[in-house]
TrEMBL record:
It comes from Qipengyuania benthica. Essential for recycling GMP and indirectly, cGMP. GO terms for molecular function: GMP kinase activity. Gene3D superfamilies: Guanylate Kinase phosphate binding domain (3.30.63.10), P-loop containing nucleotide triphosphate hydrolases (3.40.50.300). ATP binds at S6, P7, S8, G9, A10, G11, K12, T13. The gene is gmk. Its EC number is 2.7.4.8. This is Guanylate kinase. It is found in: Cytoplasm. HAMAP family: Guanylate_kinase (MF_00328). It catalyses: GMP + ATP = GDP + ADP.
Length: 199
């Protein structure tokens, strides 16, 4: 479970899309949200867009690994097909906030890798939120307001990467993933001759 978090606008969606385009071994965990779609966002690809009532039913039916309120809407990771795929060793990428990260980490510390992406400065963060052109001035102001609180949670992460140059940041995020995949505890059962030597 490879988690990318950041204050809104720092670039985690950009980095996530680059990673998904470059690495066939990892799949995106598509979240459920009560937020309305932005222009260009596609149901089932970027999010599953649901009503408040539908989200309530999913909570009641214990359909979420984690969920959290963010910016006045609710967002959650559905168990869906992820549960069995994770058991089969499939890697998943999660673009979720610090609250969801804490919940996933509490459930499964062994299999969670937490990466926090920081913008080079708060001024640049504001420029990116404005330049993206998807949110009103009011929404941008509230996301900037919340950025400070989100950044205070950076100590709940294994890695911190500054997204100044997007290609450099992407390269670092790939390097972390590559190194994590090589961890000895993740190789169990994968190298038959080593397993035989240990018998
Ligand atoms: N290194 C970078 N330099 C300049 N612009 C960038 C960089 N990385 C991302 N951006 C731009 O910043 C804007 C915000 O990026 P993105 O949507 O990926 O952020 P995010 O962290 O996923 O935000 P949210 O949490 O709101 O979804 C986009 O317009 C993106 O193209
Ligand atoms: N705890 C969770 N947070 C999530 C999930 N999906 C997305 N998010 C986070 O919400 C904010 C806002 O996203 P936006 O697309 O509206 O800009 C951002 O920090 C995401 O990482 C989730 O399933 N659980």
């Amino acid at each position: 479970m490879y988690i990318l978090s950041s204050p809104s606008g720092a670039g985690k969606t950009t980095i996530s899309r680059m990673l998904l385009g470059a690495d066939e071994e990892i799949k995106l965990s598509v979240s459920v949200t009560t937020r309305p779609p932005r222009p260009g966002e596609i149901e089932g690809v970027h999010y599953h867009f649901v009503s408040d009532g539908e989200f309530d039913v999913m909570i009641e039916e214990d359909d979420f690994y984690e969920w959290a309120p963010v910016f006045g809407y609710r967002y959650g990771t559905p168990k869906g097909h992820i549960r069995s795929a994770l058991k089969d060793g499939q890697d998943f990428l999660f673009d979720i906030d610090w609250q969801g990260t804490q919940q996933l980490y509490q459930k499964d510390q062994q299999d969670v890798v937490r990466v926090f992406i920081l913008p080079p400065s708060l001024e640049e963060l504001q420029r990116r939120l404005t330049g993206r052109g998807t949110d009103s001035a009011e929404v941008i102001a509230s996301r900037m307001e919340r950025a400070r609180a989100e950044i205070s949670h950076w100590d709940g992460y294994d890695y911190v990467v500054i997204n100044d140059d997007v290609e450099a940041c992407f390269a670092k995020v790939r390097q972390i993933l590559a190194a994590e995949r090589m961890k000895r505890q993740r190789q169990t059962g994968l190298i038959p001759f080593v397993r035989e030597l240990m018998l």
